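--- STAGE predict ---
source: upstream dedup step, 1 unique chain passed
mode: sequence only
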Amino acid sequence: MSKATVITAPNMQTKSLLALLSLVLVALALFMGTAFAGSPSAWQNQELKVKGTWMIEERADGNYLVLSEDFKTKNAPDLKFFVTKNTYGAVTGDNATNGAVQIAKLNKNKGGQSYKIPASVNLDDYQSLVLHCEQYSKLWASTPLK
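--- STAGE serialize ---
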């Protein structure tokens, strides 16, 4: 004799929980989809090798550019981070600072570090993050902000 399986409709509490879980998953997917949300991003357009990842971290006192512990690049006398309205693929050594805003000077060429982004910089107004040797107009790397 075989036993029958009884399937019942989910109750209202289960439906509410599933709806809430779905909403949380959608919000999490949107949140993790951008660098602004704190997801680590790799350097894309590299003229000189840059290892490691970066992310924008929101803190109580403002936004920070945070480099991963495995960050490493060749040393140069005048390496700086900029944000620019240019797409990362269009950035070159010649145009890297045109209409760009300097975020910070690179303190050391390897290891984890963070730089406070000036409060006057609205990251939504920019498309790319750039690491550039300003003294020699040499692009190190650029990457999309979003």
